[in-house]
Amino acid sequence: MAVGSFFGSFDLSSFINALILGISIASIWLIAALGLTIIYGTAGVINMAHGEFIMLGAYSSYMLQSYFGLPFFLCVPAAFVIVGAIGLVLERGLIRYLYKRPLDTLLATFGVSLVLMQGVRLIFGSDPKYIAVPPMFTSNFQFGFVNISAFRVIVLAITIALVVALWALFYRTRFGVQVRAVMQDKEMAASFGINSDRIYMLTFAVGAGLAGIAGSLFGVLNIVLPTMGAGYVVQAFLVVVVGGGTLAGSVVAGGATGELQSIFAYFTNDTFARFVLYVLIVVFLRIRPQGLFAPSAKRR
Amino acid sequence: MPSSRRSFLKTTALGAGAAIAAPYAFVRTIDQAWGAQSWIKKGGPIKIGLLFSLSGGLAVPEEDSTLVMQYAIDEINKAGGIAGMPVEPVIVDAKSDFKVYSEKTKELILRNKVVSIFGCYTSASRKAILPTVMAQNHLLYYPTCYEGAECTQNTICTGPLANQHSKDLIPYMVKNFGKKVFFVGSNYVWPKESNKNAKIWLEQAGGELLGEEYIPLGGSEFGPVLNKIRDAKPNFIFSTVVGASDIAFHKQFKQEGFKVDTMPIASLTTGEIETRAMGNEFGAGHFLSAPYFEALDNPTNHKFVEGFLKSKYGKNGTTHYNMEETYLSAYVFKYGLEKAIKAVGLEGITPRAIRDHSGGIRVEDDVSPEGLIWIDDQNFNTWLKPKIGQCQADGSFKIVKAAEEQVAPDPYSIYPDLGKCTADGLKAPDGKIRKSVI
């Protein structure tokens, strides 16, 4: 491809549209990664079943909507509760025995992901499911040359709200202080009377619940299938690893990857954009393996 | 200890020799074994392999293929089987994994001793198993559309080739919506080859190609592509996006404010099952080219749809082109086997003999839901009538155009330099024949 063709077709209004789309792509990457950020950042668990938590979120929305007739906007918080509860059960039944063996959590959660995928297939069948949204969300907004779909705005708004809520949870509540204490030094925190076991349990549940919210939104943008999580888990891991496992890191990493993806896709094409993005991520991690904002203090 | 070292070397050399010779010895014993006893024992059962994915990402279309094959086999058995013998399917799960496809192929041929294999949905899985199928001189019924550019002596295909698929669709869209078109496809071999064919039809129809974009297989982010389409302002979109991506594409098309009346998507894959998965409001108004639609109005199709949906295999609640093409393959097998038995007797039946007697096999109106089709006696693909359907508000398709004549399949239509596919192999322009070209 000639270099000239990269910039030959440059057009300011389309470029601005691409930048706006980049924000939307960033919000999708980020919301997929939020739950993983919490789980990885706090407990250090490499949760391979994160994609399947997203899938469960989509299926719980589908189930509530088609069996109980719940309106879509109630399905989103309900997905948080349902998938959070599943995460809680999983943490109590399996993950809590593996905190001292991080590599085993990788294998165990991978196994869990297969079980969840096949379990959902057995219950719901392998044909794709469908989540209905009110007609107003299947349209778009147009201001002059700026164009964006209503549903992308909703995803962005929910992402911002979740980030703010998480920030408040971690930096403005007693629970948050305890979580950060456990993150920094588990034994020291325990000696001050913090029950680290309980902290891990709750953060894992919250992380799973966040994946559930992401899933209920992705079910509208995409397709509801037992295998749908696989596509998002890679993105989520990239965001978390580039960000360094902190909330601020994930926000910046999600924003940067989404924007870069959109800008590269604007100048070349989608496949090439992904290629460039992944190369850049590898180079970045070579230079800064700890990620953007790694927690500086010692962990556990 | 030189002696033991020597014996070690000797053993190793022997072992290596045996390892190299083993496959040949194996193949020979198989050949000899089957030379002595026939593939089908007198009185049956006739064993066939169903090689589809029942789990993993490909399960969505391939589970339906397994179900409709079982339905067709039940139907054939109820009507007295093939030459008086019942058909018995051996069902395996290929798990959407190309290694498993190839392992299961060996298992079906060598252990289960099936006389034919029905399987695969993607070209990637087909290409994974063809070397085994050809090495064993076996027979694969490939029951869906593909790109062509293959000439083996061991396959029969009942779906449309790239040269048949978009032949009518592109001129129809140009005539009704305008000359300007944008191509969007999934990033693998079938969309790219299909687009090469579509470009030829587009040129003949006087159309203009504004852009061509590919999305990674399974990708779900169509924002950048849709932004480009918005800037290019085509009259219609030609889509070869497949699977889950296809559903994301149609959803985001509407969510981004595109209007189906002024810029419809003309697809080669968005059928009844996809439309149902995305929701009818996202599918309505778009176009599909396929040889079969559930809405085809003829007595055979009414019987097929009703019979299938009422049977224990019809839980998915719809029929679609991929299912119907698979259904046809069961009858192509039945007729081919009957013809072969008449010609060479039951003892002479081999997978290859079935294939060699399948040229020109016709599935008539009273059996084929899409209407008369027949197998080409040179390249063993199917002569069929592509039809164009427009998706309605209720998710069903209205047939807006049907080819008047069956269109000839030609796997090398865009590669005339490579030659023509004949029954014995690919015949190059200089007259040389190459066997088993994939």
The H-and-E topology of chain A, N to C, reads as HHHHHEEHHHHHHH
What is the rounded Rg of chain A?
A: 20 Å
Largest beta sheet: strand ordering of chain A: 1-2
Count of all domains of chain B: 2
- The number of domains of chain A is 2
Q: Structural class of the helices, strands and pairings of chain B?
A: alpha/beta
Helix content, binned percent of chain B: 40-55%
Number of helices of chain B: 14
Average residue pLDDT of chain A: 88
Provide a quick synopsis of the model.
The complex is a heterodimer of chains A (300) and B (438). Chain A has helices spanning 3-8, 12-43, 50-68, 72-93, 102-124, 150-172, 174-184, 186-191, 196-221, 229-243, 247-267, 270-287; strands at 140-143, 146-149. With 300 residues, chain A is mostly helical.
Descriptive terms for the model:
heterodimer, A: 300 residues, mainly alpha, two-stranded antiparallel ribbon, 2 strands, B: 438 residues, alpha/beta, Rossmann fold, 2 domains, 7-stranded mixed sheet, 18 strands, 43% helix, globular, transport (chain A), transmembrane (chain A), ABC_UrtB_bac (chain A)
